[in-house]
Amino acid sequence: MTKKPSRPSPFIQYSSLGFQILGFMAVFGYIGHYLDDYYGLKTPYITMAGLVFGVVGSMVYLIRTLNRHDE
Hints:
Elements lengths: L9 H30 L5 H26 L1
Helix pairs in contact: 1-2
């Protein structure tokens, strides 16, 4: 008789999502900051765009992850 693997608790499943959202924002914010410095921009337009892209990307990832766990 094979034992079915148990799923971790919902708290453990979803606790890492906050760190992943911060990770998305940190990576894209850093890339934007680097590009602002590289191009010598005085206003951080690319950094702001990178942070927005990080937020949108993390929300898409969050929604897809939650939908996958609901199935």
